[in-house]
Amino acid sequence: MLDIILAEILVAAIITFFVGRKLAAIIAMAVSILPLIALLDWASLYGFNIIHLGIEKSISIPIAGVSLNLAITPLGWFFALMIIPLFPAIMLFSYSFYKKNDGFYPFMLLALLSSIGIIMAKDMLTFFLFWEMMSWSSFLLVYRSRDKEAVMSYFIFSSLSAFLIFLGILIIYQQNASLLLSSINIESNAYGVVAIISLIAGFAIKSVLMPLHAWAPYVYSKSDEPFVAFLAGGLSKLGYYGMFLILFILAGAKVLETYFTNLSPNYILAVFGALSAFIATLIAFMQDDMRKLLAYSSIGQLGYIAIGFGIGTPLAVSGALFQAFNHAFFKAVLFLAAGAVAYRTGKWKISELGGVGYRMPFTFMATLFAIFTLAAIPITSGFAAKWLLYESAIDAKYIFVAPIMLIAGVGAFLYSFRILYGVFLGENRYPNIKEAPKSMVAAMFILVMPLLIFLIFPGYMLDMMHDALISGNIATLNHNAFVIETSLASYNTIAVIVALMIALIPAILIYKTRKHRVVDFMDNYLAGELPELYDNKISMHAASRFYKPIEEIIGPYFEPGTMSYYMAIYRGLKAISDAVRKIYTGKAGDYAIYVTLFLLIIMGWFIWM
Amino acid sequence: MDVSAIMIKSAVVIAYAFIGTFIGLLFLGVGRKIVARVHNRVGPPFYQGFIDVAKLLSKKTNISHGWIFDLALLFSISGILLAFAFLPVGGIKLLSTDGDAFLVLYLLAIPALGFALGAGASGNPNAGIGVMRALVMMLSYELPFVITMIALMIYYDTTSIARIVELQSVNGISSWAIFIPPFMLAAAVADMALQGMLMEQPFDIPVAPHEIASGPMVEFGGKYLGTLMLYKAISIVVETTLFVDFFLGGGVIMHGGIVANIANFIVWFVLIFIVFTLSLLINTAFPRFRIEQAFTFYWKYEAILATVALIWVYWMVI
Amino acid sequence: MHPVLLIAIPLLVAFIIPLFKKYGPSIALGALALNTGISIALFSVVYSTGTVHEIIAGFAPPIGIFLAVDSLSALLAMIINLFALINFMAIGKASEYKFSMLYLLAVAGSTGIVITGDIFNMFVFFEITAVASYALVASRKDKKSMEGAIKYMILGSLGSIFILIGIALIYSQLKSLNIYDIASRISTMDAKIKWASVAMLLTGIGVEAEIFPLNGWVPDAYQGASGGVASLLSFGPSKAAIYAIARIMLVIFPLQKVYYLVLTIGVITLLIGELAALKQENVKRMLAYSSIGQMGLITIAIAMGMNEKNAILAIFFLMVSHASSKASLFLLSDSSGMGSAATKYTGIVSVLGIVGMPPFAGFWGKWYLLMAAINGNMLWVIVLIFFSGIVEAAYFARYLHRYYGNEESFSRLTKYSMAVLATMSLIFGLLPLIYEMGLKTLFGMGGV
Amino acid sequence: MKAIELLGKGEEMNGRAYVKIDKSELEEAIKTLKENGYNHFVMLSCIDWLDDGEFELVYHLWSYEEREHVMLSVRVARDGESMPSMHELFPQIETYEREIHEMYGIKFEGNPRLTPFFLEGWRDMPPMRKDFDSRKFTKDVFGNISTIEEEEDEGI
Amino acid sequence: MRYEEWSGIARKASKRSLWMVHFCTGCGAIEMPPVMTSRYDMERFGIASMATPRQADVLLITGYLTVKTLKRVVQVYEQMQSPKYVIALGSCTMNGGMYWDSYNTIKRLDKYIPVDIYVAGCMPRPEGIMNAFLKLMKLIDEGKARGWERYKKYYERYKKNQEMAFNFVKKEEKEEEKNEGD
Predict the structure, then answer these.
(1) ipTM score here?
(2) Residue D149 falls within a domain, yes or no?
(3) Residue of D nearest to E101 (CA)
(4) Interatomic CA distance for residues E80 and A570, integer angstroms
(5) A488 touches chain B (CB under 8 A)
């Protein structure tokens, strides 16, 4: 059965090249549901027996003489739960998003195939092959944006990430002469450490950890939204899948600890995560382009996962995995919402948007719920994840990481309000746009569904990652469906929900007993001024350069931006290339001298050496 | 957790909610009286808070700007009551064993976000600017407050406020956190942060009546403004109790039966009144800061002091 | 069907064409098709039985001409003829009979180099291909192609002289021209003369194989040549020359010292090639520099082939991937961009193939090469390969961005033949053909 | 007085130079004064001489060096004679001219903004003119707006 | 919604907590500081000044009103939430004061918006203003401060008066001529 599923995805990828827009979307949607069914079937392995179709657990695909062998692992299954459900929703969304079928569906299906391959890879050859497949299929999706910075930065950074991972794989292969992931143990000598660090760096590029994130704002803000929803939601999780694999399943964290006796490098990973969360949040709320803002917010939220992996205690890692799960869904919803707004108004800049929420209530509701989860409002699952991370930071006494992490959490309110106010509320500058098409709204609400489930039962999430944690030999927290206990304190969602119900009674009482009259937009206090005198052209939009006061204070610190450092390196390379080109002077005489010189040198070398 | 225990617990929570609102409104009136006295004025009667809320709730017409605008009303009351339910009040652990300091910190954010949405939906530019200032204020005073909170947590090795209160009241007043050297500094920093939280004079930038026509509250009238007044009242109690729980042992001086509870309640009440008056006196002494000054004040001076306290505690603990 | 047919048919037909001037191209096409058929048959024979030895004109090896077709040469022969056929279709019937004559000569020459077992015979075929490619480069008759052809001729002839001297030195000592015979008796040669002959041979063939100091002619020749000729050069003569180096290195002089030298030369060529391409604006020159880089990569693979079995596999895959991608890119470079679906497909697929993305042969090439490198634990070689990989990614990304979507002027046949050339790398990347071929013993006697 | 020497005419009136000028020489006069230190344009005022049927426009300038005030007086006929606009010389003249246009009805050619200034929805003749009877106007307009008495039967 | 059904507490509460929005149209504004500060301290009676009409109950007009200002005052009055009261200070609001014959000041505020209390004086002293507030509180208590209901009941007439003032309409008949005219 599994081979049929994979074959179908490949065939669909090829068919959707030649088929019309609508049909391609339907095929893509149908095919992307298959792996979801497989996931549900494998759930019975890990304690959630939902359906029993007996889909094989492993498969090996012959290609060019060698065979790629895939098998489901607890960790793979958990990460698949984050990434695979995104695809049907994105296909449903793009059913009405695209005017003509110019190559979106085939490469998305290839990306789906390669993400399944990465998650189920049994040996490093398969892992690396599907990793490269993922990078070029996503590159071709970025390539559609026709923007120079996005295309070049994405291609260069993904090849850099691929080479770093390849270096790590090579060194590990040299140490224990086998590619099988199960039979690897990394010796804690200099080579082993270099391998682990290069692997983590390679994965960090794809999961936009701060110093290596330079490509993200360009790519997120230029390529089209449905793909970016997957890029931000799913692809960054593959980076963290790799990191978890190296750090915990292959016991990389232990190797690093034993090697660096005094300063544990995990702390550095946590510090990078914290900086990434903090700086990205500060930059995020200064952006005017909605997609750039969401890009930096995604970098910030992903920093939390790096903190969790950096601290490494069971509390921290389960918090990080929970945050990864939430981030996959709420970031996908936010980008899809941005896509829906752009689809209707054709604009991305917050200064040009405003009041879209009045005319697009469903998109606004989906964004509102996603933002609540992003900003970790207590009863949402976002809070449970962040709570675990904060607990672990305090438990591990990381006094530098904890405050920065908390401030980044509060900073999340700032840019989330900027999106809500700047785009959806405020002055209704688009009074006659219609709600996004049904398929788009349906896609957004499908992605919001999982967040709802874990809103009430965070305990289920801990059950789902139970086996994954054990495979990474990390202890699990004692919890039931509602209450999570840790050594420091406990968090009981039912208590919060019941208390909320009680607390809502007075509010509803006041709201219901006194009648109220809804007033139209122009009937607003404008210090007595009459809009009719200015024939209703008073601009009431206060959202462009919204945080100007602190922008002037914080702005200068982030002025150059990390991309300028990379550009400096690129210019350096170009200078060297100029020097190198000088060798080819263009005159045949010089070339003849080169040949004879070469002859003399190697003859001398042979005879005298 | 059998049903009867839940019933008792929710009854206690509801009772304390009423007590909290009552004390809050009392503080509003008394607060204005204290400020008036400082201005050498007679000042309104102490029950002025009750009258204002009654007048607002009995308004005939209430203007609203759509369902998002009404969200502000729902969020504000429920958020602050929820936060109050998760705080140990005078030694009585309402629900604080089920949640911890981070939960309360984020519960305090719900009303702020509710206002922001309501003000945003009203579409008034003054409201937008007001909300921007409120969020920037939140960002700025959260940093020192969070650092002092972490210092406390590291020192007592727990994040649940109930535990902190227990550990502080081990042997009565002498074991309060404020008497431990680093926490004196931390208490001072937290008090300035409290000034920002309560939106008292030097930091009432978001609701500045002269510059931006009372900021987010521009379009709120009638029952909406009434709810906001209730929120303001309860938030005074909640934020001062938070400060008291962290640094003044939650007002717990005796352990034991009903008598101890009453004594603790009175001590708690006196303590929050002292803290509130302190912030009022600072209120009368200062003109309103600009938002940049407030931001740099918190992120430069306060943050440094707080980090010094944190490192000092960390050095003591390891 | 005797392997010598592969050489005989194109030579014979090349000299018949002047008689039927009008039908020249179509006759050439027929000859090429025939040749491809034979080479595929030869490939399947070698695939099943292993190396094939044939003698011509009845004389025993030390005296008679002797053909040794082993796994790599069978593969190369097939590639050269198959790609030549598609390339000729891509160039289309417009070229007159003189062009098809030269084309056939070049194909015959490069196939000859690949399958011959006799040094002098290899030299003769070198001369044939060299002369044919000088004329082909000059076929466009404009200033740029003239200049390129002249430079190519000067360096090519210099190279041939050195090859001749090298062979003469060997013959003077061992009195035999058969490669395997020489290989078995090489140790009896006087050391100084031996090293001299190695240096001479290496330099001579190196000129044709675009190794670093000797490839001065490459940028101008490729820029001057028309798209079709450039792509012929990229898979024909240069592949044959690199094969010749492999044969000399691994069969005649399997010595450690030579191994280090060729490795360093390979790395330098790779770096110079890639870096030079980064700043290059003109497409053809950029692709030429990138070919130099790829040649460097193959030289590294050959240098490691001495004691790493993986490296041999890497040579196979790299040769195929470079041949197919570069050929299609050069054909594409004739016009200003990738307009229609077919050209877009070709451009993207060939770039992905060269950079070494999974389903294409280039990925396996890089994988086995680096596996071999790590076995010989040469970390610095790996790091440099990665560095050049990133530089390559940079300029190909810029290439893809700049040339996407502009209009282009290709006939339907050219577009589809380009696409087929590019897909070759995909086909060889998927089918296990090369892997099995790679496992067979290379170079018959005395090979690894 | 320096201004009188400069313009060659006019007499000194309780400490200020008072110069009568014809409409055509006005621009010339202001330019010469401006170059010689009178760079502060104080105001432009207008007097309605109803009986001799003329408006008198007075341009007041002040010089900081000599600390002297000069008044250039121009006579314009009441029946809608127009005046050249001087706003190129001093930008604020534009607003003064706009006000005088609204209040007296004198047209200033070249003034870009002769739109309604203080009075919104005013459809009567320019109110500052002497022949405008403000008292009668008030009685007509505000007089007949009836007060809204409480009808007795409603009762409180 | 009859006034009597209105419960006693609500009336007591609104009496003791009058929130005032202060439209300083003329020279009366200078009288307000002494009322607010320690000498007279209006906060004793729960009177506080608010920034927006939405939050206010009492509209305080402190001076003459030109037609242009009247437009803004009407807008602010309509934005206030009922029950709302108007206190007009100074003689200019009663009969135009010293501007009785000016062409663009309105003569009697009562014709355009319902005024509950007039305070005579060419700017009344703070005691006068305090008395006005106390009188207003007494009126509210007895349920006589019903200006906002009158506005609602005679809305069209108020609107017509306002229109006539805004467009400086001379006579009713002139209006008919105007209709046939254009």
Answers:
(1) 0.88
(2) no
(3) D135
(4) 64
(5) yes
